[in-house]
Every structure is written in structure tokens, then in C-alpha cells.
Amino acid sequence: MLQIENLKLILDGKPIIDNLSLHVEKEEILAVLGVNGTGKTTLAYLIMGVNYLPDDGKIIFEGRDITKYSISQRAKMGITLAWQEPARFEGLSIREYLGLRNRLKMEEIEDYLWAVGLPPSQFLNRSVDASLSGGERKRVELASVLAMKPKLAILDEVDSGIDVVSLPHIVNGIGKMKSLGSSVLLITHSEDAVEIADKVSVMCAGKIYKTGPPKEMCQWFKQNCQVCGHIVPG
Amino acid sequence: MITIKEEYQGIVEAYGKAGGSKKALESREVASLVVHENRVLRANQAEGISVKWEQLEKGVRVELMVEEGKKIKYPVHLCFGMLPQEGLQEIVLKVNVQDGGEVSIIAHCIFPSAVNIIHKMDANIKIGSNAKFKYHETHYHGDSGGIKVIPKAKVEVGEKSIYHNTFSLIEGCVGTLDFNYEVFCGEKSVTELVAKVYGKKEDDIKISEKVNLNGREARSLIKSRLVLRDKAKAEVIGETYGNAPLARGHVDCTEIVDGEEAIAKAIPVVSVTNKEAKVTHEAAIGSIDKKQMQTLMARGLDREEAVKVIVKGILK
Fold it and tell me: Does domain A2-224 have CATH number 3.40.50.300?
């Protein structure tokens, strides 16, 4: 479904994404695991068309080269992104936010909120603004991704800053995406979060080093990554 | 020659288009007043509130009085407007909410065909102790921008009372707006002034709101939300003076510019004359937030659709 070939992004003379290749299959959850500063969010932005265009390489989605497509064009093809720090919107209710693109029945909207552990009676009419806690906002973001019924959901650190009680709701939301037929690119620095993935790619210094089953990759990550001070070369 | 009935039908139709509730306006249980130019076309009294009026040469003098301890069940509906393209309408409004009284007012000011109209309001509002007064004013103008709106008010808020004022002008062109309110806040009172304006074409907007926190533990919020496009320009002055112990005030202004030639300016003035008072401010002036745009576009909206969603939310 998604193929990334030899992607390269250089900023201020430094390679942030360095000949990176990966692919995500239909209805697959692929986790990209890496410590802070390895270029994971930049990779998410490049796939969604946010802020940067790559210096080299290709992004192929369902057989089409979308490397230079706008955000809206990619979204209309079925790609979406859950931000690490989602934007806040004054005066936009959660109900409206979930129904931005698709005309959804109320039961569907409620179902998506329940999937991320937010009781609809308490949240439907609240605004997507600063009154939501960080964890609530992240769960609303996940519900809005669910509501879009995407072919590919890019989830950037949706588990970071989430308390232990709320984390199962995030995991449940991701599982529901897969059950509804979406592919998921789960970007995270947490070994716990990748348990839900079908495959894990370990990323370091703008490159994918190794891809394999979650347990094996977590082991490799622990042994090789957390001690080497992974950062983009300065 | 237009009959009073036709005049009334015309103004009520425009009132409905501006979002007003015709049913409420004509209910016998609801206090209401319909004014076209300088003529009162309809008036209804309700228990606990008296509505008096006097015709002026170019407008109407209106006196609203809520009796002591009376809580008015339904919001009072006021409708001021002019159907012709030209003219002057002056509203002199006197409000007296006596101690313990509670009332909510929904006012619509409608000028659907304005080409050269001046609408002035001069209000004197007195809110007693332990009272509540909410005033929600919505304007509906035509698209020509040929209107000058000059609302001025002096408001006294008594001890432990609540005053909420919302001014909304988001339909049609603003024209010229010179909004000037000053509030004097008593002990433990709460004041909230909200202005929401959508400037278009060559609209010229000036909003000046001044709050004097004179009573101990008085609290206030001045909140302004403006969106400007085309060649519209706006200046928002939000002033709060903390003059008493434990007084707390905040000035919050957001102005979004969505046009190459629109101009936005915000001038917050915060001052304390008492060492135990605290007044804060925040202002965000600029283009539409990039991350908000990207978020909505990542949900499949075009740029124009995303702008509409953001603007609608801010002015909601």
C-alpha cells in the first residue's frame, strides 16, 4: 500500500532522513521505533506532505507517486495524520471535529469516542480547545482519525504523555483502526506501544536499521539503540 | 404609503433572517419591544419587568426596569432596525436591574438594506447588588457596508452581581463600528465582555472596552475575537484597571487576518493601583494558525474549507 524508496531530506546541510526505505502493507500495523531526535516526526510529515518536500526519493501510495502531492490531495486519497501535539480549535465541538469530512451518524461518532475511552455524553459537545487535557486531546485526535476511515493512518507518538490508565484506550483505538481495514504507521519511542504492531522498524539517525517481529525488534532496540545516544549526526 | 402592519411584517421577517426567534418575540409571556426607525411597532410587558418607551425625533428612548428580587423567566427580546437604505436611528437605553433581580436580554439590530445609515446607542445600565444581567446583541447588516454603528455604554455592576455582555456582528458587512463600553465593578462582582466581529471589504472597526475593578475581589474578562479579510481594518483597545484588593482581570484578544490588505491592531492596557490586584492580558494577532490549517487539511479539507471551519469556530 505505502512504499517509501530511498527518501532523503537535508536541512542545514545535515541529513535528517537518509536514504530511508520502508513499506506498509494493507491492514498492517507497522511501528517505527526510535529514540528522540532520530527523524521519526519528520518522516511522518514527509509522508503526509507537511512542511517539507524530500530532496530525493519517492513516496508511492497505492501505486501512485504522491511525493509532491499537497496535504489535502493525500488526505483525499485516504492518508491522514494524528499529530504528536495536536492543534486546539476554539469554538469547534468534538462532534463537529469528528464529522469534518464524512457525514457520520451519531451512533458512529459515539462509537469512535467509546473506542478511545471518552464517554460521548461528556465529550460530544465540548470544544477541541485548551479545556481538554493533553491526554483527552490525544484521544480525540485518535477518534477523529477513526472517523475519517483512512486507508493509512500515520500516528505520531499518540502514546506519549498518556497515563497508564488511558494507554489501553489508545491501544484499543489503534486496534479498531486495523479492524476497520486501515493500515497504521505507528511512530513511537516506547517499546510497550509496539506490542500491537505486526512489524517493527527500528529507526536511527534518519535511517531504518532493521525490520522484524515486535519482540525481536524490541530486544534488538534495547541492546543496540538506547545506549548509543541516537541522534541525527551533527 | 407603507402601513404599520407592513412595516412590522418587514422588520420581523428581517429579524428572523438575522437569527431572531419570531415565536419568542410575539409570545405574550415574553417581554419584548420592536422598534423601526423611531416608531415602536410592538411592545409586551412581563411580570417583574417594566418596559417604557418614548418616541424621539430620530429614535426611541427605552427604559427597562427589573423589580427587586424578580427573576425574569424568559429572555427579553429587543429588535431595533431600519428597513430603508438611509437614515439615522438613535436608541437611548436605560436599564435598572434592582437588587436581587435577574434578566437576560436578546437584542437584534437589523439593517438589511443599509446604504447610508447611522445607528447610535447610548446606554446607561445600573445593576444592583446580588443581581444578574445578561445582554446578547446580534447585528445583521446588508452587504453594502453603508452603515455606521456607534454603541456606547456606561455600566455599574453592584456588589456580588454578574454582568455578561456579548456583541456579535458577523453577518453582512460591518461598515464603520465605533464600540465604546465602560464598566465599573463592585465588590465580588463578575463582568464578562465578549465581542465577535467579522470584518470584510473596507470595514472600519474600533472596539474600546474599559473595565474598572473598583470593588474588592471583583473579577472581569474582556474577550475579543475578530476576523478580517479583504481591506478591513480593526483596532481593539481592552483596558482593565485593578483598583481594589484581590481584584482579578484578564484581557484576551484574538484577531485573525485573512487577506493581503487587512490590518489588525490590538492595544491591551492593564494597570493596577492596588498591590493585591492582578490583571493579565494575552493577544494573538496574525494569519490563520498553520498547524490548525494542516490538521484540517490532513482530514481532507481544502484550504478554503479549512479557513471557514477555523473562522466559524472563532466567531461562534
Answer: yes
